[in-house]
Each structure stands twice: as C-alpha cells, then as structure tokens.
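Protocol step 4 of 5: obtain the predicted structure for the target chain.
Materials: sequence only (see below). No template structures provided, no constraints applied. The aim of this step is simply to have a reference model before the mutagenesis design in step 5. Sequence pasted as it appears in the construct record:
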Amino acid sequence: MKVRRRKLDSRCAVRSVSVCVNPHTQEQHEVRNPVVYAIVRNGRAQTKVVVGDVISIDQVQVAPGESLQLPAVMLVDGEAVTAGADVASVKVDAEVIGGVKGPKISIQKYKNKTGYKKRMGHRQKYTQVKITGISK
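Step 4 output (structure tokens):
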C-alpha cells in the first residue's frame, strides 16, 4: 500500500497526529491532519490547498519565481469555516514553479464509405505553483 506523505510547513497548524501502519512492510509513520486549508478557484475547477502544496493550475502568463494570489472560495481554520462574502479578505499566496503539459488526448474522426479520416491530438498546458501562505 502506497501512502503519500505531505510535507507541511512549520507555519501550518496541526490538529492531530496519528500513526499509520503499512500491512505489507509493517512500516509505521505519522500522519498529520492540517487544521488550516483553503478551497481556491482554479479556472474551471476548485482545489483544496494547504501551505506547502504544489498544484497545477490553468496556464497563466507569470514568470517562474514570481508570486501570484489565487481567489479563495472557502477557508477552514480549525473549527471556524469562512465562506460567502466573508472570504473576500482571504488571500492565498502562491509561487510559480514553471509550466507543465497535461496528458495527451487523441481524437479520431471517421466517416463510413467516404474515405474521410482525421487524427488530432491535444495537450493542455498548466502552470505549477507552490502555496506559500494562507492569510485572512
């Protein structure tokens, strides 16, 4: 069983720490549950982010190393949930890492008895960003 460990920044609060055991190798490691996270709008999608996460967003024209702010839709800080009009003051800061391409999508069209065949492909371009801070 693969267990993905998320690196947390020291500024990110932790609600609880539990121990997870891999049944095949009997390895133990700590699983931390972050208290502060935000839901940000990412073009056509929404993504849950914690400080230190690296996510792919729709391509933006910002140079690597520069910072940008993502619009927050919701903020969870412990037991307090901020949403709606109150979330306008929440800022999610991110640092641009670079551009990446998504998976290749193959498109084929075919019409019977006419000899019409068409093959196309598409790779969506994304920008990878690292979340550096969530502030009210």
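Step 4 remarks: The beta strands are 14-21, 28-34, 36-42, 45-49, 54-58, 67-77, 80-83, 91-111, 116-135. DSSP finds no helices and nine strands in the chain.
Proceed to step 5.
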